[in-house]
């Protein structure tokens, strides 16, 4: 049986705090509703793993190599240069949502501008 899921993907700067990720996730859930899973690039997983543990939410690690293949709504030049993707948050959300996954909107940015999050809808079998 197929189930629709909402996946929150994260991107963040070196030095970001757990509170930055938590705040941007709160923004995301206020706008789109609760998420079923969190997603993060393998190279950035530690902080999101902490957030998942804190919230009791499964975290999906996405290989960094898939990020450039994802079509994002945002085209950050910084993100393109650093990671090969217009938005790491959008790319990992899409990758975690699986084939046919769709972004529900562009990434949101934490108040301190250290973290971003985006949500994608997908079907998990």
UniProtKB/TrEMBL annotation:
An example GO BP is:
cobalamin biosynthetic process
SUPFAM superfamilies the record matches: CobE/GbiG C-terminal domain-like (SSF159664)
Describe the location of the CobE/GbiG C-terminal domain by residue ranges: 6-120
Q: Gene3D superfamilies per the record? A: CobE/GbiG C-terminal domain
- Pfam families in UniProt: CbiG_C (PF01890)
Q: What is this protein called?
A: Cobalamin biosynthesis protein
């Amino acid at each position: 049986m197929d189930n629709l899921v909402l996946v929150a993907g994260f991107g963040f700067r070196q030095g970001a705090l757990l509170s930055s990720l938590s705040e941007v996730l709160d923004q995301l859930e206020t706008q789109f509703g609760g998420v079923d899973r969190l997603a993060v690039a393998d190279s950035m997983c530690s902080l999101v793993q902490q957030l998942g543990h804190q919230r009791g939410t499964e975290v999906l690690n996405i290989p960094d190599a898939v990020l450039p293949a994802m079509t994002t709504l945002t085209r950050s030049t910084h993100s393109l240069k650093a990671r090969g993707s217009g938005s790491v948050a959008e790319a990992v959300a899409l990758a975690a949502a699986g084939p046919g996954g769709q972004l529900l909107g562009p990434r949101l940015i934490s108040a301190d501008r250290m973290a971003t999050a985006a949500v994608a809808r997908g079907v998990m079998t």
